[in-house]
Design a protein that fits this description.
single chain; 268 residues; alpha/beta; 6-stranded mixed β-sheet; 6 helices; 15 strands; globular
Length: 268
């Protein structure tokens, strides 16, 4: 399975419509990939809180239409990062969109862990309620089930354990991670891979979001925790070949997951 992670820069001199068209072109260039991954909130910027309402869109809005068409033209699975979703009752969500090679929207995932504590995303957006998986290459030699997570979710291993229990052998994590905590980004991506014996495809953004410098450094980690590819700070695309069989092989050779102890009583 060939994966392409496009680390997009949110440029202040570029309108959302211009960026949407530019990114659609970048997706079409990856027609030799099986899976293309984009970052979190690349249309508006993960820290552009004041612009969330103005740029919110429905699930069939302009970003979904452009990304579905690009996925169909390139014949790729496309994790199109996330948008600010204008929910049916007016609640906003940070929602990831995944398109099949025929351009159809196959999965959505509303971010469960909202960053900001008592401000920003945590107060402006609704919380997702469900974990989400999707099987790519079903029935073929490259079959691999992906678990979906977004940015701040990376800090919460419980979510990834649930995804493993649902069959995930790969985690796809779009993000708008700040440069101030880049060391955490790299460490947590490797930790989630090692503890779950799964691939981690963590795709960040370049540039700045509303003045917040972005970490960049998108990374692909294998089930042993080895970094297969890592980007720099600027806009670039990582292209990596993954071996889906390595997940089962790793879990068989070092069967740590079977030693999990569940339901340990709370200390008194």
């Amino acid at each position: 399975m060939r994966a392409a992670l496009s680390q997009i820069a949110v440029r202040p001199d570029e309108t959302v419509a211009e960026r949407r068209a530019r990114v659609a072109g970048l997706v079409r260039e990856q027609h030799t990939a099986d899976l293309v991954v984009l970052p979190e909130l690349w249309t508006v910027g993960a820290f552009a809180f004041d612009a969330f309402r103005a740029h919110a869109e429905p699930l069939d809005g302009p970003t979904a239409q452009a990304m579905g068409a690009a996925a169909a033209d390139a014949r790729v699975w496309l994790h199109a990062g996330s948008i600010i979703e204008d929910g049916p009752d007016g609640t906003l969500f940070n929602t990831s969109l995944v398109f099949a090679p025929d351009g159809r929207l196959r999965r959505t995932y509303r971010k469960i862990h909202r960053f900001g504590f008592d401000r920003g995303e945590a107060t402006l957006l609704g919380r997702g309620e469900e974990t989400v998986t999707l099987t790519l290459g079903e029935g073929g030699p490259a079959e691999l089930t992906a678990g979906l997570a977004t940015c701040y979710d990376l800090r919460f291993p419980e979510q990834f354990r649930l995804l493993v229990d649902a069959g995930a052998g790969m985690f796809v994590v779009p993000a708008g991670w700040p440069a101030a905590r880049r060391a955490h980004w790299s460490l947590l991506a490797r930790a989630r891979a090692v503890e779950s014996q799964a691939y981690v495809l963590a795709c960040g953004t370049a540039g700045a979001h509303a003045g917040v410098e972005q970490a960049g450094h998108s990374v692909v980690v294998d089930p042993w925790g080895e970094v297969l590819a890592e980007a720099g700070a600027g806009e670039e695309t990582l292209v990596v070949d993954l071996d889906p069989a390595l997940v089962a092989k790793t879990r068989a050779e070092f069967p740590a997951l079977r030693d999990r102890v569940l339901g340990v009583p709370t200390p008194r």
